[in-house]
Amino acid sequence: MAEPPFKNPTPTVDCIIELTGGRIVLIRRANPPVGWALPGGFVDEGEPLHAAAVREAQEETGLVVELIEQFFTYSDPKRDPRKHTLSTVYIGRAQGEPQGADDAAEARAFPLDALPQELCFDHGTILADYLTYKRTGQRRKL
Questions:
Q1: Is this structure's pTM higher than 0.70?
Q2: How many helices and strands (H and E) does the chain possess?
Q3: Based on the structure, what is the number of domains in the chain?
């Protein structure tokens, strides 16, 4: 009797893109789940995580991102309502203003003190962790 196939989590990436003036870039998703989110998406087979983060950011915002650091990997099985994903989050910087493209209905830069409330996935948690890190230098504890 054949064993059932493994059901492994799917790797994804997200990018916190810092712009001048203390702003970060969010996209409004065109596909379910809809709402505001960090630019990101699924890692292609054979693609390194950092390359996926740069690619997804550019596809969704039109910005060329320079990654500064790998921030944290979020793996709560409930973080994505579609399926179990693992998201490695990067912090990057870019010049210019974002333009929504690919599966982003809109891309916009937000001041850190005026982020939208309607965030998808666990991106509210990610951004709260990021704000703590920027303020104190302390990273999320495991």
A1: yes
A2: 2, 7
A3: 1
